[in-house]
C-alpha cells in the first residue's frame, strides 16, 4: 500500500525544515514549487506537472511544494509574490524559474532531468546555481535566454484596472488574431501582456468551472482546447475607472445574433459565428478578472512601492474592519468595490459577532480613552466584517485610503476618503479600521484569523477516483498538510469517531460505509482552517452543494448524502478531539496490520439497504449534518 501511495502522490508537501532536508536527500531531480502560506502553491501548473510525469514516466523525477514561511533554507524567498520553482539534484540547487511560464517550465524539467541522469550515470559535476534572488546576478551565456524569457514581470500602476481577454480558437484559426489586436489598440485599450497558448482539456475545465452546470459546458471545453488562443491582459482606456465594463461593451453580447442586431460594430458581431464560437472572451466582473489573471499570468503584479534604498517592497497584508453600523446600511458592497478598485486582494474574509471582552482585547491600547465606551458599543452592536487585504505597501496604502480616524476631521480635510464617505449620521465612531503598522497588522490578522488545525477525511467513496484531485484542491486552497495517514477504520474506531451520532437512526449505515475501504486522514493548517475547510467541502447534501456551492468538493465529487466524499470537523474543539484520536496515542498501531490494512475479521460486512431505508437515512443525515454545516462563525 505504501508503494501505491507514493505513485499516486504528485507533489510531496514540505512544511518544515526536517521535511526539507529529507526531500533534498531524494535521488534524482526534484522540482519544488516555493509558496507563501497565505496564498498557497501555484495551482495553475498542477495539470502540466501531471502531464509531464505521465509522459516521461521517470522514477528520477519528483515534484514537491514547499512553504517558505516555515523553512529556514527558504528565508530569502519569503514575501515574493510570483511563483518560484527550484530545481534540485543531489541536494544542490541547479536551476531557478520565476513565474508560471508553462512552456519554459516543461522545457526546463526535461533538460534538467537529462542533465541529472547524466551526472548519475557518468559521474560528472552538477552546475550549481546561486540560490539568491538578486536581480542582475551574473548569468552565463547558456542561462541568459532562459532568464530573459521569464524574469520580466508584468507590472502596472496600482491605480489602473485590468482584465483578461481571450481571442478564441475559431478567430485564431481564421487568421483574424492580429486584425482583432489592432482593433483593440485602435479603440484605446492598452495590452499589458500577450501570450499564445493552447489550453489542455483540464485547463479549460478549470477555467470555465463556473459554467460546469450549463448544458454547453462539455462543448465549450472541447472547443477551447481545440487549438491555440491568444490570451491578453487589457488595461483601461483613457478616462475609464474600470476597464471591465468598457471591454465588455467593446466585445458585445455573447449571443452572436443579439450582437449583430444591437452592437454591429462589436468584435463578436464582426468575428463570431455562433454563441460558443463568438471569437473573444471577456471577464464578467472585477473579481472574475482577478481569478483569470492569476490563472494565466501568476507573475502579474501591480507596481510596488520603492524603498529609499531602492529595493522593491514585498507584498504585505493589513487588517481592515467594516464596523456594524455601516454594514446595517447595506453599504459593505460599496466598500469592497473600492477595495478591489484600489488594487487590493482580499486574502481572508470573515464576519464575526464580537463579545465585549474580545473588543477589549483587540483595542487594549484604547481602553482608557474617552471614546472607548462609544467604540465598544459600536463594535458589539452587530456583526463585524474582518478582511485581510494584500498588496505592496498595504498598510500605508489602506491608511491613506480610509483617512483620519476623527470623522469630523475626515469630512473637513479629506472628504474623498472612505471614513468621510461612509460616516454614519449621529455616530461619532468612524466605520472603518486599519492597522497602524506592519507589526500591528500581523497581530490583528492573527486575532481575527488565528492559525488553526482541522481534521479532513477523504472517504472511501472518493479515494480511488478523486483522491489526487482533492489533494490538489487542498494544497491549491492554501492549506498546509501537516499530518497524513491512509488507513482502513475498524468498526470500533468508526463507532468512536462518530460517537456523537450514536443515537441517530443513520449511525449503523454511516459506520458500515466508513469501514468499507481505505480513508485518508489529514491534519490541515491554515488561518481560520475549520471554517475554510467546511466552505471548501460545501454542504453535506450534494444536491444542496450543487445548488449553492457548485465549485465545492461535494458538489463535484459526491454522489449522495452518504457517499459525500469528504468529512471535516465542525468546530475547533471537535477538530482537536478527532486529531488526537486519529494521530495521538488513542489510535494504536495494533489496530492495523503490517501492510496498513485493517484485519478483515474486524471489518464490517457490507449490507444492502432498500431505497426506502436509504431515503429515510439520507433525510435524517441531511438534517443532522446540516446543523454542523450551518454553525455560526464564533471566536
From TrEMBL:
Keyword Glycoprotein set for record: no
Segments for region (Disordered): 124-154, 597-635
Protein task: Major role in the synthesis of nucleoside triphosphates other than ATP.
Record field: compositional bias (Acidic residues): 142-152
Single GO BP term: UTP biosynthetic process
Thioredoxin domain boundaries: 1-115
Entries under CDD domains matching the protein: NDPk_TX, TRX_NDPK
Compartment annotation: Cell projection, Lamellipodium; Cell projection, Ruffle; Cytoplasm; Nucleus
Lineage of origin: Eukaryota, Metazoa, Chordata, Craniata, Vertebrata
Entry protein name: Nucleoside diphosphate kinase B
Family: Belongs to the NDK family.
One GO CC term on file: ruffle
Chain intervals with Basic and acidic residues compositional bias: 124-141
UniProtKB keywords: Cell cycle, Cytoplasm, Metal-binding, Nucleus
Domain of life: Eukaryota
Molecular function (Gene Ontology), one example: metal ion binding
Amino acid at each position: 500500500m505504501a508503494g501505491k501511495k507514493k505513485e499516486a502522490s504528485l507533489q510531496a508537501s514540505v512544511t518544515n525544515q526536517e521535511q526539507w532536508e529529507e526531500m533534498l536527500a531524494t535521488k534524482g531531480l526534484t522540482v519544488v514549487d516555493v509558496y507563501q502560506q497565505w496564498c498557497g502553491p501555484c495551482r495553475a501548473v498542477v495539470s502540466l506537472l501531471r502531464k509531464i510525469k505521465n509522459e516521461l514516466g521517470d522514477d528520477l523525477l519528483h515534484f514537491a511544494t514547499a512553504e517558505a514561511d516555515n523553512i529556514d533554507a527558504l528565508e530569502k524567498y519569503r514575501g515574493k509574490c510570483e511563483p518560484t520553482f527550484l530545481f534540485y539534484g543531489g541536494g544542490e540547487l541547479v536551476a531557478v524559474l520565476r513565474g508560471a511560464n508553462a512552456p519554459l517550465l516543461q522545457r526546463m524539467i526535461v533538460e534538467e532531468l537529462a542533465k541529472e541522469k547524466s551526472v548519475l550515470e557518468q559521474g560528472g559535476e552538477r552546475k550549481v546555481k546561486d540560490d539568491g534572488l538578486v536581480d542582475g546576478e551574473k548569468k552565463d551565456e547558456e542561462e541568459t535566454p532562459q532568464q530573459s524569457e521569464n524574469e520580466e514581470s508584468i507590472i502596472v500602476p496600482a491605480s489602473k484596472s485590468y482584465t483578461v481577454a481571450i481571442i478564441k480558437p475559431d478567430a485564431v484559426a481564421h487568421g483574424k488574431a492580429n486584425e482583432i489586436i489592432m482593433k483593440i489598440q485602435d479603440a484605446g485599450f492598452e495590452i499589458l501582456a500577450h501570450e499564445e497558448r493552447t489550453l489542455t482539456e483540464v485547463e479549460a475545465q478549470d477555467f470555465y468551472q463556473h459554467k460546469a452546470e450549463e448544458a454547453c459546458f462539455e462543448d465549450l471545453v472541447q472547443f477551447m482546447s481545440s487549438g491555440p488562443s491568444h490570451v491578453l491582459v487589457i488595461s483601461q482606456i483613457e478616462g475609464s475607472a474600470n476597464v471591465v465594463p468598457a471591454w465588455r461593451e467593446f466585445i458585445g453580447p455573447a449571443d452572436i445574433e443579439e450582437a449583430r442586431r444591437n452592437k454591429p460594430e462589436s468584435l463578436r458581431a464582426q468575428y463570431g459565428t455562433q454563441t460558443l464560437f463568438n471569437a473573444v472572451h471577456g471577464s464578467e466582473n472585477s473579481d472574475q478578472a482577478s481569478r483569470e489573471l492569476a490563472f494565466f499570468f501568476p507573475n502579474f503584479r501591480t507596481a510596488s512601492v520603492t524603498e529609499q534604498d531602492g529595493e522593491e517592497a514585498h507584498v504585505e497584508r493589513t487588517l481592515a474592519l467594516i464596523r456594524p453600523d455601516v454594514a446595517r446600511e447595506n453599504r459593505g458592497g460599496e466598500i469592497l468595490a473600492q477595495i478591489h478598485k484600489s488594487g487590493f486582494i482580499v486574502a481572508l474574509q470573515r464576519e464575526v459577532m464580537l463579545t465585549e471582552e474580545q473588543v477589549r482585547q483587540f483595542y487594549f491600547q484604547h481602553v482608557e480613552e474617552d471614546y472607548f465606551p462609544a467604540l465598544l458599543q459600536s463594535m458589539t452592536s452587530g456583526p463585524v466584517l474582518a478582511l485581510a487585504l494584500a498588496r505592496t505597501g498595504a498598510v500605508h496604502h489602506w491608511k491613506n485610503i480610509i483617512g483620519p480616524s476623527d470623522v469630523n476631521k475626515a469630512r473637513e480635510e479629506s472628504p474623498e476618503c472612505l471614513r468621510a464617505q461612509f460616516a454614519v449620521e449621529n455616530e461619532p465612531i468612524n466605520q472603518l479600521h486599519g492597522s497602524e503598522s506592519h507589526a500591528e497588522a500581523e497581530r490583528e490578522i492573527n486575532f481575527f484569523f488565528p492559525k488553526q488545525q482541522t481534521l479532513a477525511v477523504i472517504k472511501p467513496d472518493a479515494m480511488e477516483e478523486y483522491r489526487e484531485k482533492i489533494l490538489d484542491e487542498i494544497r491549491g486552497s492554501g492549506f498546509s498538510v501537516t499530518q497524513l495517514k491512509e488507513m482502513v477504520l475498524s468498526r470500533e474506531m468508526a463507532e468512536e469517531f462518530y460517537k456523537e451520532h450514536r443515537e441517530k437512526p443513520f449511525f449503523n449505515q454511516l459506520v458500515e460505509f466508513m469501514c468499507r475501504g481505505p480513508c485518508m486522514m489529514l491534519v490541515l493548517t491554515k488561518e481560520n482552517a475549520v471554517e475554510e475547510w467546511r466552505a471548501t467541502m460545501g454542504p453535506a447534501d450534494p444536491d444542496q452543494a450543487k445548488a449553492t456551492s457548485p465549485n465545492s468538493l461535494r458538489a463535484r465529487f459526491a454522489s449522495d448524502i452518504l457517499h459525500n466524499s469528504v468529512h471535516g470537523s465542525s468546530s475547533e474543539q471537535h477538530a482537536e478531539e478527532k486529531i488526537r484520536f486519529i494521530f495521538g496515542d488513542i489510535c494504536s498501531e495494533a489496530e492495523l496490520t503490517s501492510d496498513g490494512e485493517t484485519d478483515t475479521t474486524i471489518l464490517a460486512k457490507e449490507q444492502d439497504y432498500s431505497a426506502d431505508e436509504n431515503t429515510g437515512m439520507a433525510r435524517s443525515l441531511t438534517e443532522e449534518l446540516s446543523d454542523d454545516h450551518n454553525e455560526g462563525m464564533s471566536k
